[in-house]
Amino acid sequence: MNTQKTQNRSHKVYLVDGARTPFLRAEGKPGPFSASDLAVQCGRPLLNRQQFDPQDIDEVIVGCVAPSHDEANIARVISLRLGCGHATPAWTVQRNCASGMQAVDSAFQSISSGKADLVLAGGTEAMSHYPLVFSQAMTIWFANWSRARSWQNRGRLIAQLRPAHFQPVISLLRGLTDQTIGMSMGQTAERLAWLFDVSRDEMDAFALASHQCLTRASESGLLREIEPMISAQGELFDFDNGVRPDSSVEKLSKLRPVFDYPVGKVTAGNSAQITDGAALLLLASEQAVKEHHLAIAGEIIDCQWSALDPAEMGLGPVHAMATLLLRNDLKTADIDYWEINEAFAAQVIACLKAWGDPEYMASHLGIEKPFEPIDAARLNIDGGSISMGHPVGASGARLILHLLRTLEQTNSRRGIASLCIGGGQGGAMLIARNREEL
After folding, report:
1. Active site (annotated) includes residue 211
2. Mean pLDDT confidence for 282-311
3. Which residues have CB under 8 Å from 340's CB, separation 6+?
4. pTM for the structure as a whole
5. Domain range list for the chain
């Protein structure tokens, strides 16, 4: 690990504003909004409250893991629907669970290098819309059918059909499986639970705390970044509907393991929920701030991407955050608040244990002395993906946005947002409040 690499940038990058949709739990059928619908629903009020015209935006960058076939280069679809105009370039990025953070980092790089002054960036995902697809065998059958010119040949093809041909491939499950190691994301969480001796009780207690924190934040009006949505059927959505205010350790303990039955510990209750949602942020250069008289909410200081064994992908935040702190000469105590995406309770708990484990830090990151523990009271203080859901394209942007709001509400200085990434990666972003605002 090379921690000596420094940022090569000459322009500051400011976070101006942001918004997100409520995160809506998938319920077995396509939800009321497509991925582009979700981004537009939170993007319109975000842009409507700005003093500049949407066509003043230099670039639109959106993260999305699986846009539908009607949303090719979904960032461009969103940009045009938001009125950014034909002359505003837009492009889509994909880094699995960190796609939304990658979009923000790409905007950060574009502004810091002087290529742009005002960028709309974030992520969106409609996981409930992930398709069922035909198997390769059925695809070949359709190809042969299209070439068959006689009813005799078509009759032979019909005779070849078997029930297995009609068995759909569930793209969601395939997408949550790492084919290079043959493990699902849940199985990698089970591996971390075994490696770091994370108990089922610890996982369920963490999951319960997530629901309690999100319930408290929602009831206290702390989630002001949420923009209400109205479906085509007139239904209002104004809160994260995956939250369970009545959750309890007793209820969670009754759930059976999903990925390693019957001896596993990872359940649906202590894992992130399958969800639809979007989050967008406005990033600006100092020149754009002055030109458009923009209020500065915060500043992006640095971003780090790291990689590790795909079988232990959940530890990605440890690798990314450690590098980020070392490069910026910071300690755990220098960070006021942390957001680590709750892909699985086992994964976050394992990250916290690895963070202070001398053996792990030395052998995997070359760090002789581990960091001081992360204070649980400063981690995911308003809940996370276990309670609100994890729309994979949007979560990275959501973490940054909420961390920014947390720093504002607590009048704090610095924060780090981080995610593990399927395929064995980790991402982390360091943001700070504007010094003049403190």
Report:
1. no
2. 97
3. 317, 348, 351, 379, 380, 384, 418, 419
4. 0.92
5. 183-222+301-431
